[in-house]
Amino acid sequence: MSPHFADLRCMDRPATRAFTLLEMLLTLAVLTAVAAVALPQLDVLLSGSRLERAADQMRIEMTRTRVDAMRQGKVLMMEVVPETGDFRVRAYNSLSDATETAEINPGSSALLTGADQAMAMPVQTDEIPVKEFTLPDNVTFGGITVASTVRSMQVVQDAASDTAVMDEPIGDTASPILFYPDGTTSTAAIQLQNTIGEGKLVMIRGITGEVAIVSTAVTSEG
Fold first, then answer.
1. What is the DSSP string of the chain?
2. Predicted confidence (pLDDT) per residue in 17-68, tens digit
3. pLDDT tops 60 at residue 208
4. Looking at residue 15, what is its pLDDT?
5. How deeply is 29 buried, as exposed, middle or buried, from its count of CB atoms within 10 A (0-12, 13-18, 19+)?
6. Between the CA atoms of 43, 48, 52 and 53, what dihedral angle is there, to the nearest 10 degrees?
7. How far apart, in whole angstroms, are the C-alpha atoms of residue 179 and residue 189?
8. Span 206-219, mean pLDDT?
9. What is d(CA 207, CA 14) in angstroms, rounded to the nearest whole number?
10. Which residues are registered as beta bridge partners of 214?
11. Which InterPro entries match (predicted)?
């Protein structure tokens, strides 16, 4: 191959050009600026998604707890810790709870002696494990309102006394939401909040046990 022909081939080959340090720094600066704008928006989207999942989690657990109370024939208590994402569900075990079970399912001796005798018979029930839950990251409980009734006040009072089987506390819990074997529940509203001021109000209606979710704004008072 002649030297002249080799020179022509070199001329036809496209020249490769590397990035200079200045160009690389400018590229990094542009990417940093884009990230500074995009990341807060991404955090907003993630916070909203976590809040939605937390509200759905509460709705599902409330519905499941109501069904469990009816299946097991026991009063179940849902306790939440304000300003945290922790809550749990546990059974309320007491003598009165056992006699309610006896009244619903009387034995053969009760049928022979009458209902009054059945009410005086405690029934041995299986222990139900405590279920503990945590909301998604950066979602906490805000205000909690539980309507008080004579029935619920008696349960709460007994749960704080020696007549009930108590479990280790998970914190300073608010008034528990009660789920009864007959399918009714406490009437309650729970505020969920995230770090950007968005909120969801999870409400349960005592007569039907229906759960509704409403979007709200979190005020400066919480």
1. --HHHHHHHHHHSPPP-PPPHHHHHHHHHHHHHHHHHHHHHHHHHHHHHHHHHHHHHHHHHHHHHHHHHHHHTSEEEEEE-TTSSEEEEEEE--HHHHHHHHHHS--HHHHHH-HHHHHT-----PPPPPEEEEPSTT-EEEEEEE---HHHHHHHHHHTSTTS------SS--SPEEE-TTS-B--EEEEEE-TTSEEEEEEE-TTT--EEEEEEEPPTT-
2. 666 877 777 778 777 776 666 555 555 557 888 999 999 999 999 999 999 9
3. yes
4. 58
5. exposed
6. 0
7. 14
8. 87
9. 80
10. 201
11. N_methyl_site, Pilin-like
Structure tokens given for 72? 């097991």
Residue 85 has a pLDDT of 94
Model confidence pTM above 0.85: no
The tokens of 114 are what? Answer: 């009458």
Q: How many CB atoms lie within 10 A of CB 79?
A: 22
Q: Tokens standing for 160?
A: 């704080």
Neighbours of 30 (CB within 10 A): 10
Which neighbouring-strand residues pair with 215?
Answer: 200
Number of CB atoms found within 10 A of residue 45's CB: 10
What is the set of domains in the chain, with CATH numbers?
49-97+128-217 (3.55.40.10)
